[in-house]
Every structure is written in C-alpha cells, then in structure tokens.
Design a protein that fits this description.
Heat Shock Protein 90, 3 helices, globular, alpha+beta
C-alpha cells in the first residue's frame, strides 16, 4: 500500500464528494460479480487532485461507451449512478471521465481543483 500524495486544501462539499464516490464504487463492485480487484488512487497532476477508480470487471459494452453520462444509459435496471456522480463532481468545479473501458474492467478519473496557495 502506498501513501496518498501531499495535497493542499480542496474546497469541496464532503457529502457531495462522498455521494459521487459511492455511485462510482458501487458500479465498479457490481461490474465484478465473480470478484476482482478494485483500485483507488490519488495523485497531483497539473495543479489538481486526480482520483482514479479502477476495477477488473466486465468492462463497458461498446454500445454504451459514448453515452455513459446520459440518464438511463446502463446495462442495469436503472442507470442514474454516473449521471449523479458527474453532477456532484461538476458542482464542485471538477470533472469525471472514463479513461479506460475495455475488458478487463474500467477506469474512471475524477479531477478536483486545489485551492490556490495564499
């Protein structure tokens, strides 16, 4: 296990960040019905904190990939998790993107701006 990088302060609503992470993590766990590996990491990149969530699950079907953050686009019964996560992250001044989606698994990155040094 590695330590998280030294971060300066982030101006975030903890409840909204927790809600976004919950939705992404739930999707990752559900994508691994037979088990697998879930990796969460953080790094500083270009003055921002980048949190990555990666799983070794089934991947994202090609027909869904281009529309991941649209309401009700899913391989499950109800698809609002990624839409909710994106809304919560963007409400904090951040971004979320799927940067890997083929089998095995998927990788999402959340980019959160750090407070400027005073």
């Amino acid at each position: 296990m590695r330590a998280l990088p030294e971060l300066s302060e982030l101006a975030l609503d903890a409840d909204q960040l927790q809600g976004a992470l919950f939705n992404i993590l739930r999707n990752a766990i559900e994508a691994m019905p037979e088990g697998g590996t879930l990796t969460i990491a953080a790094e500083l990149r270009d003055g921002a904190c980048v949190v990555s969530i990666e799983d070794t699950g089934t991947g994202i079907p090609e027909e869904v990939r281009g529309r991941l953050f649209e309401p009700l686009i899913t391989t499950k019964l109800l698809g609002l998790g990624l839409v909710t996560a994106r809304t919560l992250i963007e409400g904090q001044g951040g971004t979320i993107a799927c940067v890997r989606h083929g089998a095995p698994g998927a990788r999402f990155e959340i980019t959160l701006p750090q407070l400027a040094a005073t």
